[in-house]
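During the second half of the funding period, the structural biology subgroup turned its attention to how the target accommodates small molecules. The most pressing case was NDP, which had performed well in the primary screen but for which no bound structure existed. We therefore specified the complex as follows and requested a full 3D prediction, including the ligand pose.
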Amino acid sequence: MQLSPTLEMNDGRTIPQLGLGVYKIDDGHAEELVAGAIGLGYRHIDTATLYRNERGVGAGVRASGVDRGEIFVTTKVWNDDQGFDATLRAFDESSALLDLDYVDLYLIHWPAPRQDRYRDTWRALERLRDEGRVRSIGVSNFHTHHLERLIASSSTIPAVNQVELHPRLPQEGVRAFDTDRGILTEAWSPLARGRLLDDPVLARLASAHDRTPAQIVLRWHVQLGTVVIPKSSSLDRVAENLDVFGFELSDDDMDAIAGLATGERTGMDPDDNG
Ligand code: NDP
């Protein structure tokens, strides 16, 4: 069975580089999908309060039969729950739904700059980490100016910044900033929600490597050194997406994929969400 390699975070812990995203997976389907993915070799699951499937995710982890300590589970605090006390309450709810003793990584889902509560929210994450209920803490959708402001107000640098990242939106500025500060960049919507998979450049590379376009894109992420969490509702595609560690893209291939950048987002600009 193939397992993803792990990457080290700035708090000394490790995270499997490739995980399963479960946005839009129904709570009723999550248990079976997560247990099935773990059976295929996945050791990292990415959920969020917003996805309303934490119960199914936790049940899937338990049903997998794999030791809890071998599986990395991320969840996220939603915008409506930002603020010190509200975040602690939200975590209690997530924790009860997941029913897993601890969470490996807890993220602030969006900076929600108009609310201006992410620094208080961050203090709550530090508290949860100090209490051992959460192992690592990080952020999501933070532009560099949000990160700079957060870092200036805290002694903890986020372990991870999970952002929209795919060949159309390679996030060079965010990646360079994150690397400079020791923050691991994690790619959400790594396949641009499937919208770029019929691109002729990817078709050419897929044919040359005898792989699928999705595998080419995921391999590009792996070689960039980012954490990557593709979502699929089908176990066949879940298996396909993990099978990206047995081939390599050349520098020319990487350059060809870099040529797909348009700056186009599939989601909102973080300055406009909340
Ligand atoms: P992805 O880029 O992972 O794309 C998912 C889409 O691609 C689905 O339509 C899926 O269809 C399809 N797909 C998956 N694998 C294949 C394949 N091998 N071949 C063809 N099509 C494929 O999009 P997501 O937006 O789901 O992002 C991934 C994860 O990132 C989320 O699930 C979530 O965990 C996280 N995320 C985080 C956000 C944040 O704000 N922090 C925001 C959005 C996502 P099918 O299911 O039918 O296979």
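Two results from this model are relevant to the next phase. The first helix runs from residue 27 to 40. Residues 21-23, 46, 109, 140-141, 162, 188-194, 197, 212, 214, 229-234, 237, 240-241, 267 surround NDP (CB under 6 Å).
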